[in-house]
Design a protein that fits this description.
globular; 2 domains; alpha/beta; 191 residues; 5-stranded mixed beta sheet; Collagenase (Catalytic Domain)
Length: 191
């Protein structure tokens, strides 16, 4: 994949260059140059990962800084009940594959987000904790289980069963459906 970015302001171009080159270095390689008209071109020669599972078929997570840590442990148990041992808590002896933390971003419309390029899951307290949104235990657990599914390489599944964990939105389904399991089987075969 090649990404070309053209910026007119030198400071912005420099900051973006550093950020994108850091990402590219993590995933392969990059080339950066400045043209005669002052624009910066960055070519990233790689691709973003499809999942956060390491070569040993594990996804080591750290959720100690999240107030939703108990939800994370329950969601991990759900995924691990189907494929044991894929999710493991980070014990300091292995490299962490995903960091799970909380943010407070009101107005962006999402309750959770998984970023595969930077290996994090953010859980949004602005919605999950606000009483006006009326999130109950199962709604929060669905959000966490759904985001962990993205870390495993599963995509949204809004066309399948209404009980899919990988279905977007405020849901109460917290058990893996047959669609979720089939998607996980396909992702697991790629690890």
């Amino acid at each position: 994949m090649q990404v070309k970015v053209f910026l007119k302001r030198a400071l912005s171009a420099s900051l973006l260059s550093v950020a994108l080159l850091g990402v590219a270095a993590a995933f392969g390689g990059a080339d950066c140059g400045t043209s005669t008209n002052g624009t910066t071109t960055i070519s990233i020669i790689t691709s973003i990962p499809h999942d956060l599972v390491d070569s040993g078929k594990h996804c080591d997570y750290d959720s100690n800084q999240s107030k939703y840590d108990s939800y994370v442990k329950t969601a991990v148990a759900t995924w691990n009940a189907y494929k044991p041992g894929v999710f493991r808590p980070d014990d300091g002896k292995v490299l962490q594959d995903v960091r799970i933390s909380d943010v407070n971003n009101e107005g962006n419309g999402w309750t959770g987000i998984t970023n595969l390029a930077f290996a994090y899951i953010h859980l949004n307290k602005a919605y999950l904790d606000d009483p006006s949104y009326n999130f109950n235990y199962n709604n929060i657990l669905h959000t966490v289980t759904h985001e962990l599914g993205h870390a495993l390489g599963l995509d949204e599944n809004n066309d399948g069963l209404p009980t899919n964990v990988m279905r977007q939105g405020k849901r109460e389904n917290i058990s893996l459906s047959t669609d979720d399991k089939a998607s996980y089987d396909a992702a697991y075969a790629r690890y």
